[in-house]
Amino acid sequence: MKRPARIALDAVSKHYATPQGRVAAIDGVSFDVEPGSSLAITGPSGCGKSTLLGLIAGLECPSQGRVFVGGEEVSSLSESERARLRRAGFGLVFQRDNLSPFLTAVENVALQLALKGDDDGWERCLEILAELGLSSNADKLPDRLSGGERQRIAIACALVKQPSVILADEPTGSLDAQNSASVIELLVQMQRRAGTTLLVVTHDPDVAMHLDQHLSLRDGRVMEMSGDRSLGRADA
């Protein structure tokens, strides 16, 4: 996938077996996200936000229903096929920056290209760091950087592959209010410039306000979503 990808979920559920019986982390969720748009996923702790993002990323398969990304049914792929899809078309950003402490900022970004199989992108790595205001930090190790700077490097790692989809799980959760606003504004700005489809899990209403649409989860079910046309069955 190179173009922005439409994301579509069709009656998706995810169940887990527990000593107390079966628990539905996600329960019959259906929605569409148009290519190049952005969606905030909000809800109380334990409502299934991160599980939902993991299903879209192909980190897990649904117990029922179908997940489509870019017209491909992710939920029907094998584990190795899902991993290939993530490497080729997904940019992932998490609350923890997950940077290698032994690599400089630019080396961390370049590592993402190496994992994808690209061995010629050093200039692109430097360019994207410059776009994120990190030129002076390119040769610094992560422990020499602030939390906001490390999270911007994490965003560079997600964007350098020119993904069709960016999935961000609480990308500002460990930052103070000022850094949080700066990071989400930068992420949305870069997403719109690249035309990438963006999904952000967040507990922060100020973060959600920056995105095109807003989906509210409770007990694994969609309670509300902005844009009526996005609700209902998906037919990728």
Pick out its properties.
236 residues, alpha/beta, 6-stranded mixed sheet, 27% strand
Give an account of the 3D structure.
With 236 residues, the chain is of the alpha/beta class. It is built from seven helices and ten strands. The chain has a six-stranded mixed sheet with strand order 6-7-8-3-9-10, sandwiched between helices. The chain has a four-stranded antiparallel sheet with strand order 2-1-4-5. β4 and β5 form a beta hairpin. α3 crosses α4. The longest helix has 18 residues. The chain is globular, with a radius of gyration of 17 Å. The two termini are 15 Å apart. 45% of the residues are buried.
Short description:
This protein is of the alpha/beta class. It has helices at 49-57, 79-89, 105-116, 122-131, 147-159, 177-194, 205-208; strands at 7-18, 21-33, 38-42, 64-69, 72-73, 90-94, 165-169, 197-201, 213-218, 221-225. The strands form 2 sheets. Strands 6-7-8-3-9-10 form a 6-stranded mixed sheet, with helices on both faces. A 4-stranded antiparallel sheet has the order 2-1-4-5.
